[in-house]
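User:
Can I borrow your eye for a moment on a structure tokenisation matter? Would you put together a sequence-and-structure record for a protein of your own picking? Please set it down just below, with no commentary around it:
AI:
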Amino acid sequence: MKRINTKAFSAGLRERLRASGYFQKELAEELGLHEKVLSRKLHGNANAHLTGQEVKIIITKLAQWRAITTFEEALYLLEQAQLPPESFSDQEWHTPPLSQLEGNGASRQTRSDYVLPRLQLHNLPAPLTRLVGREEAVNHLLQLLSQDEVRLVTLFGPGGSGKTRLAQHVANELAGAFTHGAWFVDLSAVRDPILVPQSILQVLNFKPAPEVPAVKSLITYLQNKQMLLLIDNFEQVEAAATDIGKLLAAAPDLKVLVTSRAVLHLYGETEFNVPPLAVPDSSAVLDIAKLEQYGAVQLFTERARAVLPDFTLTLTNASYIAQICERVDGLPLALELAAARVKSFPLEQLLARLTESPLAVLAKGARNLPVRHQTLRDTITWSYNLLSSSEQELFVRLSVFSGGWPLEAAGAMMHTLVANQPLHQEQGYSPLTESTLDLHEHLVDNSLLVRLTVTNEQMRFTLLQTLREYALERLQKSGEFERLRDWHACYYLGVAEAGELGLRGPQQLVWQARLAAERDNFRVALEWSLRQAMTGKSIMTGAPYRLEPGTASEIWNPAAASSNETGQPERVPETWPHAVTVALRLTAALRPYWEWQGHLVEGRRWFDAALAVPLAEDAGKTARAARAKALSEAARLLSLQNEQHKAVEMAEESIALWRQLDDPRGLATALFYRAWPAIALDDNELAKRVCEQGLQLLSPTGDLWLRAQLLFYMGAAEGLSFNAERMHSLYAQSRELFEQLGDKSAIADLTKDEGGMFILEGKYTESITNLLQSIELSHQLGYKQFIATGVGLLGFAVGLREEPDPPTASLLTAQLWGIKDSLMGTIGSSSWLSNRPFIQVIIQQIKARVDEASWHAAWLKGYKLPEDQAIATCLKLKPPSPAISGG
């Protein structure tokens, strides 16, 4: 007689006894055995084992006690005991309690001709395509679900991110690990949360008694099952989450894998965010092998090959593919819809159409996909329709931001809308009553917003590009588009002007990071204000901020809005400035940021556009002051690009405007910016004169930063006039003020220039010390302009010092100038030193020590060095002597 597999059978038996509330002692009595004897049989101790008849009695009793309820369970226990279904006669199968098992059809005539099928362990659909780019996610989910304490995992993410496909793959991998398999429950057609338990019962092929509630029947069915339930599309029945909680509490061996665009918010839930596929940086140069490692590129090329069999990733099309992947955010659905278009459009045209109107292109998906996945717009609409009215309103309005926003910016927008509520009520808009944070959290939970990493104590959020396009479409139809665009431009003018001041103080690195994070918002604000300016329009702020000169802090601080005694914001009178004023002020305020970041070319483009818009003949003081400031800031930028004569024109026009406006501080600033092109054009006397005039316009305690800069530039003019003592005195006064203000970038600049002046004094070691201090500090600050000019000056000091010997020093100079030229080319800057004839003599003197080929090889070596390696190369030159501070 075949020995029963007691180990497998006993495990299943104990599970069912425990779930049904019966004990082993009661089963022993039914078998006519002592409890200890049955225990030995079940454990296979002392050569004791179960007989086939005893197995049949046990299964029959389990059916009678409702410890098993389905025909499949009975077959499974027989299979565990390694017995065939024919162990029960046909009559036994047709006799209660076995005949009452669900699925035991009474129509079967005999069991002799019945072949036992493999027990179905799942109903998961067979995959039609390969799962791409999700290896890490699959491994993580398999690891999570293998842990006993993890029983509910929710895969959440935006529509089209591939949640269902990933979950089905993981469930297929795990199906064999669960005694009762893995079962897929699709809720996409279910809208009533009450129907969720019934939908699960239908998938499990269990028909409860009509008088028993579906949840209770489901609990009874599942409480003794070791099973994985994959419940798909839960977002529209979120109220049924409590039923899932009840199932998990009652069925200890049940695990649930949920896909949803919103998390369930259940205790014990493990949230797993399904992000878009990895996307390459389209601005970076990557070889084919590296591009193929990105999931988005893999999916796009694979799906494109499905419609064009000869489609491949090549050096010619790699850039377009990378940009397409980036444009659709790496969303799998969007990638598949885009790839389907390659048989209609060349990649270049496809990219252009995606940039212009992505939602129109990302349509016409496969017919065997759910309707909501046949166009990206339908997918997003599905999610949008699940939102409350307040959430829908905020989601649409947040599209006014670009690239992300801090919570306080959204709060300021909401505050403005509420402050001007009477206008919106007239147009039929409802007020936003929930807090900014709560609404953002709801949108994040519904996978419509992305929460970014918190930096500089700012919580930031963003919209995927495709979601933003959808929201923008709705915003344009809402009647609020222009109003919110105007508000956005004014708000970011406030940020820029506050940042302009912040870059001068001890929090300058915080402000640098904040301004860098808002780069896309600045671009959108500039584009909008310039577009409005070119048509002569005004900006309807609708915001609690004044747009008068010198009020940057009021613009930046939303708390400036007043409230009445009830705590509700009062309606704020509107100020409608000309759009050209906003464009000019925004451009001028961003010049220090562009210089610091090394975006001189971009800054130049915005200045050209803003200054090309003429002021109206009757332009008021605010508009003329905005133009005057923009002119002087443009002069600074032109000087950095070594276009000194244009810089002079800009500065002189600025000076004339400030004189008309009778504004001493504005005039002093314009004189300051007039000094540098004078120095670059070897007119040191003029530079000293305009700096002196600027200082006379300032009160002794007024604008210490501008006073320090004027002293600094005057010191430079004195140094280039070979008045070293006067130069060091002015530098010392300037340094003291910069240290008082906490402006490290200005200190780096001053230290650099003083290092350059040491070269004129023949103090090369002191020069190298100062220059390396400046380069190191500038590198810490990320100030690329100062790094580049500092390395250029360092080349002079090293070459003129001639250590360890003149030819070696010359080759090192060539390498340093290669570094300098690379950095300046990257940021769009150019040195003014070559304007001076005596500088040209020094350059030729240093180069003449080596042959042209050796010089070029050394220069090329420096030119090709990455910035970090270039800085390390410079710092190796640090002399052993202590730093010289001048004076």
Q: What stands out?
A: The chain has 42 helices and eight strands. Confidence is low (pLDDT under 50) at residues 106-119, 422-432, 542-574, 883-887.
